[in-house]
Each structure stands twice: as structure tokens, then as C-alpha cells.
Amino acid sequence: MKIKTIIIIAVSVTLVAITAFLGYRILYLVENPELLEVTLPPPVEEVTPPDGPPDFPVVDEPEHTLARVNASGGLRMREGPGVDYEIILLIPDFDQVLIHEEESGWVYIEYGEVSGWASGEFLIREDDPRFALEPVESVVTPGNRSPNPASARISAQSGLRMRMGPSSDYHVVMVIGYDELVRAHDEQDGWVYIEHLGHWGWVSAEYITNE
User: Which of 36, 39, 116, 194 lies at a 20 to 30 A Cα distance from 97?
Assistant: First the structure.
């Protein structure tokens, strides 16, 4: 019985203490009503979407000009802007290149996967009416095709021009590298009709040697 009485007294005392504390807090809030005010965040401004698609930054593409070679003997691409620089390759007449920059009459060009310098004097740019002209010799002058062509090698250190006909007046088909193997079919007045990598044309007999 004593334990039960002690528990009842303890609970009663606790309830009285809680009631007194809550009464005090209520009285305090009544006397200080500003504590009951709730500060709300400022309203969010409505954003009006712009008309049309969004503006994205414009990325400038590298500037270049399309041009074609205007040199019957082909155009030499060099390692630098001048004749003192080494020759990289010879670009055939009428082939197209991309011009990227110019310096004192020399232009930095791109030809396929190769880039270098060439004389701007022998290039016709795309805004020139002559750019659209076709070469006079659009077909290689045929020679006699031998059933048993002779094997020969190019002896010109800087490469040998294959032309559309048996004369230096004809346009260049391609340039064949030094020591490349070709098939010789016919010869006329110091010019040899050859086949190389599926291409047919004429080369000077002076710069090929039979195997």
C-alpha cells in the first residue's frame, strides 16, 4: 500500500508541475504576442520564358578557301614559305586544295592529309570564274597495251610526273615516287606508256630503268 501511495503522490506532483509550466508559457505568450508572428519568405517572381529558341554561343569554324592548282607541271608543296625549303610533294594540275593562310605570296594549304606551303601564283581560288573550267585533256592519250608489259622502276629522286600524253605539254595525272615499280607497255619518241596502281599515263623514258 505504501508503494502505491508513493506512486500516486509522485504522479500528482508531476502533473501539477507540468500544468504550472504550461500555464506560465501560455501567460508569457499572451503578454508577448510578437513571438507568435511567423515570418514568411518573399514571394518568388514569375519568370516569363523568352520567345523563340534559346541563344547558344556561335563557334567560329576555321576559315579556309577552296582553290585548284593551275600549273601544267604540277605544284610543289614545300615545308616553308619559300623556294629554299624542301619539297614535300608535287600536286597535280587541276587538283583542289584548301588555303588556310597567306604570307608574302605563299599560301599554307591542305591537300588530302598533307599540309604545307605553295606559291599562290599557281592557284585559282573558287571565286575566280576560271575555277570551274575543265582541263583540255580530260582523257589520257592511249598507247598500245602489251600483253606482257616490262617491269621498270622510277629513277627520278624527286618523283616522276605521269602525264595524259607523250609530251610535257600534257597535264599531270599523278606523281610517282622514287624507286616505285611500274609496268611499261609502249614507247613513243622518248615517252613510255605505263600503268601504275590502276592509273594509265605517259612518263619520260629518261627517268625509268628496266628491271
Answer: 194
Express each pLDDT in 9-45 by its tens digit.
766 767 766 776 666 666 666 666 665 565 666 777 6
Cα–Cα distance between 36 and 172 in angstroms, integer? 97
Q: What is the pLDDT of residue 168?
A: 86
Sheet with 65-69, side-by-side order of all strands: 87-91, 75-78, 114-119, 106-111, 96-103, 65-69, 123-125
**The domain defined by 65-132 carries CATH number 2.30.30.40:** yes
- Per-residue buried b or exposed e for 176-194, using 16+ beta carbons within 10 Å of the residue's own CB: beeeeebbbbbbeeebbbb
CATH class as words, domain 150-210: mainly beta
What's at 161, amino acid-wise? R
Mean pLDDT of the chain: 80
Cα(14)–Cα(8) distance, integer angstroms: 10
Is the pTM for the entire model greater than 0.70? no
Please count the helices (runs of H) and the strands (runs of E) in the chain. 1, 14
